[in-house]
Amino acid sequence: MCGIIGYIGDNGALDIGMKGLKRLEYRGYDSAGLAISNGKEVSCIKVVGKVEELEKIVGDKDLVGSSIILHSRWATHGGITESNAHPHADCKGNIFVVHNGIIENYKQIREKLKLMGHKFVSETDTEVLPHLIEHFYNGNLEEAVIKALKYIKGTYGLVVMAKHNSDRIVVARMFSPLVISVNEHGGFVASDPSAIISHSKRMIFLEDGEVAVIKKDDFIITDLERKVKDKKETELDWDIEEAQKSGYAHFMLKEIMEQSESVANSMRGRLIIEEGISKLGGIDSVKDKLKDIKKINILACGTSYYAGLIGEYLLEELAGIPTEVDFASEFRYRKFPTVENEAYLFISQSGETADSLAALKEVKKRKALSLGIVNVVGSSIARETDAGVYNHAGPEIGVASTKAFTSQVVVLALVALFLGRQRNLSLADGKTIAKEISKLPELINNTLKDISAIELLAKKYNSASNFLFIGRKYSYPVAMEGALKLKEISYIHSEGYSAGEMKHGPIALIEENFPTIAICPQDSVYEKTVSNIQEIKARNGKVIAITTQGNEEIKSLVDDIIYIPKVNEVLSPILSVIPVQIFAYYMAVSFGHNPDMPRNLAKSVTVE
Ligand code: F6R
Predict the structure, then answer these.
(1) Higher confidence at residue 50 or residue 579?
(2) What is the pLDDT of residue 557?
(3) Rounded to the nearest 5°, which phi and psi values hold at 543?
(4) Same domain, 486 and 584
(5) Which CATH number does the domain housing residue 504 bear?
(6) What average pLDDT does the structure give for the chain?
(7) Quick one: 343 and 467 in the same domain?
(8) Residue 603 appears among annotated catalytic residues
(9) Residues 226 and 112 in one domain
């Protein structure tokens, strides 16, 4: 998400810090800032916009320093403003913090600190950190940081400097990556190896619960009980570009592989399993209106539209609310009549898609309630809708959407659970769903364990010029998403169909060289999909089945099988979409195409 770099040493802290921050630019961000210490004073500068803007301001000042911490922010809590940018400071301007992650209990901590007289100047969750550290500070920075962290619930990768301890920076990790390196050039820390790889290829990857004190020629790593940890360095043989992709060949593959983490981020702090509910701060302001909602219209484009189709099943099944889904590009030209008590839900990764924005304008003209599920904080759709839920999936760089999709479906499940529990969904059923949602990161990890088998399948089938994807119920939108992924990056013609529609036309296409990918987890419509598979096999069509682990009986029926873990059927798309993403990726790679930059496509479609 956000980018962090810190340095302490004799080699020109400002230059090292700014160059490192620039290397994190590829991740996307909305504001940037730094704090630099010359041993006596700390200067802190923050700007809205690109690192260039920060460079301009810094260029006008005479900043010399021996330690520096820098941050590029991708907003999660609070708008894109200078005061919300990092570093954040305590009341006295002694302690400065840059932070990635989310402090879940910041509201409670902030209220307590305010009662003690602390003054807050931002809307961020991060700002509680310098104040809490200040509260415990007694001249020993690491001790104060550790004491503060014991009160924190949530995730962090953080770097702290203090005016009165200018010989060190203190860093800590909980679920948010940090690497450190101390060598003859000084001490370095970064959220991403790419920021510091030009200074050192030997790095130590911090683990959750670890705290490091970094000096210019020395470091120590302990746990939160101050027990010293003996850590080994890792030698990275990546160049800078490889480092930005964490060693993956493409951003698309990196984003596919990080879905366990992005989905965990989408649900973090939002599920109360024992009450069987979800807590969604972004729609809290309209929760009373939502109680009376009788119809939901979902509007989106492309992959976000397919997530919307899954949302339709979820909202109808869990909340009993009639739901309709349309392409925003079509809807904007419909003469749609509004009815009382309906809501319009916009789903968009970028929050800038022109067709979705135009449809939103039409909805606003009619004064209907508009909601958003948006990944990019502060984007147009996020700003223009009445209320909404952010995905928190992190920046998506590959043009083909992958982690945004799984995150959208998770957020839709959270919204459906929220609305369901406002209505007739029982406590027991709410608990079951909440528990299943919470297991998703682990199940995604299992799904991603052996992707080499899918790579082999892509090679086996890459002479086919056409592909069909089929599925029923929750798997039907996955079939369409699979066909979209394949066509957009491998340029192979592919179609996604409801399995039940096969005999109404598309089955005419089936022959030996027209393979089908059947998404058929063992759910309530499994037997029906198996019948459709049999119809394809009877016409000599090849079938790859994506089905539930342990399903042996399908072996005799299909040509190839990809297994996914067992999960409640309402969440099955989050697992079943992963093999089709991987399949499309390796198909593209097998033809020598760059999946990150498919021809004719742009990441954000801001024209009609
Ligand atoms: C496909 C893809 C596009 C987008 C669509 C909507 O991989 O990325 O189909 O899903 O252009 O974009 P957002 O979600 O930004 O509104």
Answers:
(1) 579
(2) 97
(3) -130, 130
(4) yes
(5) 3.40.50.10490
(6) 94
(7) no
(8) yes
(9) yes
HSE (side-chain half, CA atoms, 13 Å) at 79: 5
CB 97 within 8 A of CB 398: no
309 close to 407: Cβ distance less than 8 angstroms: no
**Amino acid residing at 212:** A
Check if the beta carbon of residue 356 is closer than 8 Å to that of residue 373.
Answer: no
**Exposed/middle/buried for 232, CB within 10 Å: 0-12, 13-18, 19+?**
exposed
Same domain, 401 and 527: no
Domain annotation covers residue 598? no
Nearest protein Cα to ligand 1, atom 11: 302
**Strand ordering across the sheet containing 95-100:** 88-89, 95-100, 156-162, 169-174, 210-214, 219-223
Query: What residue type is assigned to position 118 of the chain?
Result: H
With 80 as the cut, is the pLDDT of residue 151 above it?
A: yes
Q: Is 520 a known active-site residue?
A: no
Task: Calculate the dihedral angle through the C-alpha atoms of 120, 121, 127, 131, rounding to the nearest 10 degrees.
Answer: -40
Q: Are 351 and 379 in contact (CB under 8 A)?
A: yes
Peptide bond into 477 cis (omega under 30): no
Say what the pTM is. 0.83
pLDDT tens-digit readout, 194-225: 899 999 989 998 999 999 999 999 999 999 99
Give the count of domains, the chain: 3
Structure-block tokens of residue 184: 């003859």
Instruction: Answer whether residue 549 is part of any domain.
Output: yes
User: Which of 252, 304, 306, 600, when mutated, tests ligand 1's pocket best, judged by the most ligand atoms within 8 Å of its CB?
Assistant: 304
- DSSP for 222-245, please give it: EETT--B-----EE----HHHHHT
Task: Exactly one of 147, 229, 431, 603 is catalytic; name it.
Answer: 603
Range of the domain at 534: 451-590
Q: Identify the residue whose C-alpha is closest to ligand 1 atom 16.
A: 348
**Which residue's alpha carbon is at the smallest distance from atom 3 of ligand 1?**
302
Position 600 in a domain: no
